[in-house]
C-alpha cells in the first residue's frame, strides 16, 4: 500500500470486502499488506488479526484504513463500513452472478447500499485470462476437451469477460469497477489507488458517493 506512517489523529476508515469464499479476497488483502513491493512474498494473514490496519498519507493528510472481509471473527453484518468492495473471481462466472443474486441482497439488508455508501466492484484473479480472451475468442467446451480439460461450465467458458463484469457493476449501480491479479500484481497499483481515494473521500463533507458513472474498463 502507500508508505506507512504514524496515524496521530488520522480519521479511521473501515473497508469491508464481501464475496464468495475461495475467490481470492485473502490474497488481495495480502497484496495490500505489501503494497508496491511486488517481489516481496505475500504474507499469510490470519482471520483473527482483523481488521488489517494501514496508516497512509493521501491528499497531504494521514488516514487509517481498517480492512475486513466476510471471514471476520466478528460477524461482518455488524460492521459499519465506510466503503464496500464487492468481489468476484474472474475465473468463476458463478461468483459474478452471486454478487447480483446473493451479495447485493445481503448488503441491501445490512448496509446503506443505495444512499451514501460507496461501492466498488472488484474482479480478482485477472491472470486467468489470456491474450485470446481479450481478442473476443470464447473457449468452447469442445476446445477444452481437446486440451485435456472437461470441467468447463455449460456456458462454454471458465472466465468472465471484462465487459460482463462492467455491465453487472453498472446494473448494480456500483461507483467503480476494477480488476486485478493479486498473485502477479497486475493492475493492483491502480486498484489500491482507487480504493484509497474512495476511502479518503468518505471523510469529506461531500462524501465519496459518485455523482456520475465511474465504472470503466482498465
From TrEMBL:
<protein>
    <submittedName>
        <fullName>Uncharacterized protein</fullName>
    </submittedName>
</protein>
<dbReference type="InterPro" id="IPR003578">
    <property type="entry name" value="Small_GTPase_Rho"/>
</dbReference>
<keyword id="KW-0547">Nucleotide-binding</keyword>
<dbReference type="InterPro" id="IPR027417">
    <property type="entry name" value="P-loop_NTPase"/>
</dbReference>
<dbReference type="GO" id="GO:0007264">
    <property type="term" value="P:small GTPase-mediated signal transduction"/>
</dbReference>
<dbReference type="Pfam" id="PF00071">
    <property type="entry name" value="Ras"/>
</dbReference>
<dbReference type="GO" id="GO:0005525">
    <property type="term" value="F:GTP binding"/>
</dbReference>
<keyword id="KW-0342">GTP-binding</keyword>
<dbReference type="InterPro" id="IPR001806">
    <property type="entry name" value="Small_GTPase"/>
</dbReference>
<dbReference type="GO" id="GO:0003924">
    <property type="term" value="F:GTPase activity"/>
</dbReference>
Amino acid at each position: 500500500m502507500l508508505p506507512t506512517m504514524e496515524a496521530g489523529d488520522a480519521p479511521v476508515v473501515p473497508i469491508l470486502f464481501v464475496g464468495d469464499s475461495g475467490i481470492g479476497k485473502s490474497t488481495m488483502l495480502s497484496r495490500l499488506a505489501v503494497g508496491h513491493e511486488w517481489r516481496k512474498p505475500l504474507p499469510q494473514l490470519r482471520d483473527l488479526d482483523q481488521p488489517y490496519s494501514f496508516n497512509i498519507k493521501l491528499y497531504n493528510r494521514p488516514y487509517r484504513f481498517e480492512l475486513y472481509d466476510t471471514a471476520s471473527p466478528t460477524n461482518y453484518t455488524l460492521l459499519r463500513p465506510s466503503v464496500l468492495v464487492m468481489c468476484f473471481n474472474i475465473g468463476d462466472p458463478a461468483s459474478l452472478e452471486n454478487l447480483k443474486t446473493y451479495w447485493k441482497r445481503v448488503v441491501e439488508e445490512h448496509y446503506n447500499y443505495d444512499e451514501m455508501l460507496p461501492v466498488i466492484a472488484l474482479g480478482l484473479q485477472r491472470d486467468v485470462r489470456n491474450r485470446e480472451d481479450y481478442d473476443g475468442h470464447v473457449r468452447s467446451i469442445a476446445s477444452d476437451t481437446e486440451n485435456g480439460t472437461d470441467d468447463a461450465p455449460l456456458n462454454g467458458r471458465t472466465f468472465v469477460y471484462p465487459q460482463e463484469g462492467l455491465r453487472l457493476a453498472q446494473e448494480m449501480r456500483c461507483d467503480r469497477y476494477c480488476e486485478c491479479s493479486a498473485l502477479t500484481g497486475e493492475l493492483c497499483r491502480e486498484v489500491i489507488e482507487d480504493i484509497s481515494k474512495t476511502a479518503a473521500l468518505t471523510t469529506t463533507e461531500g462524501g465519496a458517493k459518485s455523482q456520475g458513472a465511474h465504472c470503466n474498463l482498465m
